[in-house]
Amino acid sequence: MQPQRQHAIITGGSSGIGLALSAGLCRRGFAVSLLARDEKRLDDARKSLVAGGAPDSSVLTQTVDVTDETSCTAAVTSCSE
User: Fold this and answer.
1) Of the candidates 24, 12, 27, the residue with the CA atom closest to the CA atom of residue 75
2) Residues 2-41: pLDDT tens digits?
3) Is 42 exposed, middle or buried (0-12, 13-18, 19+ CB in 10 A)?
4) What is the C-alpha to C-alpha distance for residues 15 and 8, in angstroms, rounded to an integer?
5) Residue 41: how many CB atoms within 10 A of its CB?
6) Is 45 exposed, middle or buried (0-12, 13-18, 19+ CB in 10 A)?
7) Around Cβ 38, how many Cβ atoms within 10 Å?
8) What is the pLDDT of residue 1?
9) Of 10, 17, 32, 60, which is least surrounded by CB within 10 A?
């Protein structure tokens, strides 16, 4: 049985520190889920990570407003499945 890949969920993952953290984790073999409000920026961030060498299947995105608890819970649940 192959070990399960480590998975990180990054809020604010579409830019700045969140995107830089995601890139570093991808280089270390993590799967990452990027959470942010702007769907276009999330898609651009995912494309950037894949272009940088992350396997396409290891980068997930989820549009979410972190001020909405119900939305956050649903996003984390979706990313964890």
Assistant:
1) 12
2) 557 799 999 999 999 999 999 999 999 999 999 999 999 9
3) buried
4) 16
5) 17
6) buried
7) 12
8) 46
9) 17
Structure tokens at 20: 């830089």
d(CA 29, CA 15): 20
Whole-structure pTM over 0.85, yes or no? yes
Tokens of 32: 């990452």
Residue type, 73: T
Planar angle of CA 71, 79, 12, nearest 5 degrees: 65
- pLDDT at position 24, please? 96
Cβ count near 56 (within 10 Å)? 9
Instruction: Please compute the mean of the pLDDT values over residues 45-73 and round it to a whole number.
Output: 93
Tokens standing for residue 8: 């990180």
